[in-house]
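so my prof wants the structure for this chain in the tokens format not the other one, which i didnt know existed until like an hour ago. anyway here's the sequence
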Amino acid sequence: MKIVQILPALNEGGVERGTVDISREFVKIGHESIVISSGGRLVEQIEKDGGLHISFDAASKNILTAPSRIYKLHKILKKLNPDVIHARSRVPAWLAYLANKNLKIPFVTTVHGFNSVNFYSKIMTKGDKVICVSTAIKEYIQKNYCVADEKIVVIPRGIDLDEFNPTKIDNEFVVKFKQQYKLEDRFVVTSVGRITQLKDYETFIKAINITKNTIHNIKGIIVGGVHPDRLQYFERLKSLVEELGMNDIIAFTGNQSKIAEIYSLSDIIISASKKPESFGRSAAEALAMNRPVIATNHGGITDIVIDAKTGYLVPITDETAISEAIIKTSRTNWSGLREFVEQNFTLVTMVNKTIDTYKKLRQNSL
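here's what i got, hopefully its the right format
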């Protein structure tokens, strides 16, 4: 099959990394993978893995330029004549939906998050098939948009167990990273994700501050890039670290490509998100690296973090609860974490279910 995926950009984030993973797997099993986006640092990986990237402004919300972009996308799709179009975000979904009106190519959307409920977001329910990344997302869109059950397919994001494999880490990177951020002989607690208020890094920092009185060698690292419109928030975080006297305890590492290695050198992974996670990719990746996870108790991540089995769930914005969970986690001997992912959240399963969805739609359209 010739498969087109369309998303705003290819920089960082779960949707972007998932697109890269599934594009690579499509190529491996003989499909033609085409990704349309406005570009970004992950384009090189798409092409290295055998996919084709087409640069197109699928990110701008400017309504004035929408008609010309719809026309341009219509021409691109008509020339490509793919077997399926798969939209992974709202702006690309609108553009693809309208560009595809006369082409009538099978159209799939994936609802990756708990988007605000309005006409703009409703486009994600307009696919011929609507993929939801968790049961929590399925319940959310059915509650707010009355989407028929037979139209929805729940396909959890899949973890690449070859990439997130404790036996295949880059030990040289681990040594250098530990040296750079002074992690030797430290109890490392890590949070992975873009610098944004929704990730609630304030609570993460405060929890580390409380915990340092019990775990004296604790070190907290925050791994994620800073978008220009989040610079003020980033400065507030750095000021908080300064005020608490934690400059030698909290480290901001920026974007990192060796995420598996960072999980491996960590003792605990924390997701303190204020907003419900649609799935919780970083949690599943961490478990695949045999690292327990502490997460806020809402959204799709509750399918992944099971109390006392794979980690602990805590209330949102509760630094004391997170601190207590860190201490409890540090005193627990964890086992079966990777096996839990192998049984529930593999990339192979995600790819097979996605291809099966495409094929059924294609057959119905013939």
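also thought this was worth mentioning. The mean pLDDT is 95.
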